[in-house]
Amino acid sequence: MSSDLLDALTALEKQKGISRDVLLEAIEAALVTAYKRNFNQAQNVRVDMNSDIGSMKVLARKDVVEEVEDERLQISLEDAHHINPAYEIGDIVEEEVTPKDFGRIAAQTAKQVVTQRVREAERGMIYDEYVDREEDIVNGIIERTDARNLYVGLGKVEAVLPLGEQIQAETYKPHDRIKVFITKVERTSRGPQVFVSRTHPGLLRRLFELEVPEIYEGIVEIKTIAREAGDRSKISVYTSHEDVDPIGSCVGARGARVQSISTELNGEKIDIVEWSEDPVVFVANALSPSQVLDVQVNEEERSTTVIVPDYQLSLAIGKRGQNARLAAKLTGWKIDIKSEEDARELGIYPRELPEDDPEEVATSPYYHDGEIYGNDEELPEEPIDLYKED
């Protein structure tokens, strides 16, 4: 073995973090296989490599027996005594059988083994790096596309963005930079395989963590997310700090923070509502920007009936039912929306006040510009615009 190879193994240990001893063991095992294959030998052999002086020997290992049945694997006690009188039955004798031209084969084999082990080690390190980044956001560069998948370069690895994880309204071109959400990392025979998404709700969560310091620091918490990627999303936020406005923190000055996230998601509209453990309040908030007159809850069926002003019915339901659908996903409650006129005809609105406590408010409040309105107060004439600039 040449000193150049030893120096190379030492350098790899420092650069790649692969132990030189591990590489030497792998080379020895590969040389045994190469010896048997190239010299048509079925002997029990081992390769002895001296890393200090760079020497290499092929040693045949034979069992000491009284009567030899296979000369390739056994040696008689008499012949063993010619080598060393101390040998006894059952001992193992080693004889050097290094072929004259074995150096060339050894060099080729060592190169192959080192290359393979380096590749495996690099794959292992890449896998370890990205498996720890599952459910995290990363920056990537679009490298190529095929009929179903988009391939995004993340630096050390090429990630797969499946068709179902792509935003339909987006156009992807090679060399474009995009942010993606790592959904899964798998170990395969070809190395680590990373799968990413542009539609996962986790992408929206991570974008808010990057854009809103209060969320990143844990002052404001994102409770739930409902998303129809590329079109519209709703998130519910909460804070235990009385002096912090959770919605205002996410929206930012003149809507700068939420607008930045919307731009990253190709103009996706984002509704931000305040979370509440009270389903009456939470459902009313979730149907924003629609005003709500009353929320009637059925705990057993986990469903709600929501009464809205007549002129707000289409806004509450949304285009193709989107607003109501997202609100239901956000809250986890079924939502049946009825106009005030229909609710009055059905006799479910307004509800009668309880006889034992006539002061109790029978309907839920609704919110407008930070003020709480009861059922007996006049509705604002204009629809609520959460993102209206001051």
TrEMBL record:
Gene Ontology BP terms: DNA-templated transcription termination; transcription antitermination
* Residue ranges, annotated region (Disordered): 348-390
**Cellular location of this protein?**
Cytoplasm
Acidic residues composition bias: residue spans = 374-384
Quote the cellular component terms of the Gene Ontology held in the record.
cytosol
- Specify whether Nucleotide-binding is a keyword of the entry: no
Write down the SUPFAM superfamilies for this protein, in alphabetical order.
Nucleic acid-binding proteins, Prokaryotic type KH domain (KH-domain type II), Transcription factor NusA, N-terminal domain
GO MF, any single term: RNA binding
Listed Gene3D superfamilies = 3.30.300.20, Nucleic acid-binding proteins, NusA, N-terminal domain
Chief location of this protein? cytoplasm
* Record's function text: Participates in both transcription termination and antitermination.
Which HAMAP family does this one have? NusA_B
Subunit details:
Monomer. Binds directly to the core enzyme of the DNA-dependent RNA polymerase and to nascent RNA.
PANTHER family in UniProt:
TRANSCRIPTION TERMINATION FACTOR NUSA, TRANSCRIPTION TERMINATION_ANTITERMINATION PROTEIN NUSA
Protein family (similarity comment): Belongs to the NusA family.
- Its name, as the record gives it, is Transcription termination/antitermination protein NusA
Organism the protein comes from:
Sporosarcina pasteurii
